[in-house]
Specification:
By secondary structure, the chain is mainly alpha-helical. The protein contains 6 helices and 2 strands. A two-stranded antiparallel ribbon has the order 1-2. A hairpin with a 7-residue loop joins strand 1 and strand 2. Helix 1 crosses helix 5 and helix 5 packs across helix 6. The longest helix has 25 residues. The radius of gyration is 18 Å and the shape is globular.
């Protein structure tokens, strides 16, 4: 039953991380709606793209997240309504719409991300850096295997 044990641990980890994110969203000031998990993921990808001065499009986000185009459009519309992103026609290719994380989107993403990093920091303190460094290659390998399985499906 190794597969059940792996699944149990996976679900426990994702539940803790998601609950930490939900705790962060409950601390949202009055009048602001919390970011959903997918909204936070999209904001994170946009923040990293902007930091690297790389343009990002909805199709690029779909590729990276494997979120369906219709779902991505709903996420982007929600983020736009919240005043966190803006869509802008590309200067180099007028057929493309580029996405930009606005300062408020950056602030909201960073706050949630900070709280999740507090959780991972606690894990590092409890396990120790050496054990976490030993764990990372195994987790990367597992993620790569899952990526390959999903791409082949």
């Amino acid at each position: 039953m190794l597969d059940e044990e792996l699944l149990d641990i996976w679900l426990r980890l994702t539940s803790v991380i998601d609950n930490q994110r939900l705790a962060a969203s409950h601390a949202v000031p009055a009048g602001e709606s919390p970011l959903s998990f997918n909204e936070a993921v999209v904001c994170g990808l946009l923040a990293r793209a902007q930091a690297a001065d790389l343009p990002m499009t909805a199709s690029g986000l779909c590729r990276q997240t494997r979120i369906l185009k219709s779902q991505m459009n709903a996420i982007l519309t929600s983020l736009e309504r919240k005043g966190l992103i803006r869509r802008q026609q590309s200067r180099t290719d007028r057929r493309r719409m580029e996405l930009h994380l606005l300062p408020e989107g950056q602030r909201r993403y960073q706050e949630g991300h900070r709280q999740v990093r507090e959780l991972t920091g606690a894990l590092i303190r409890e396990m120790g850096e050496d054990q976490v460094r030993a764990l990372l290659p195994l987790l990367r390998q597992a993620a790569d295997i899952f990526d390959n399985i999903q791409q082949e499906a």
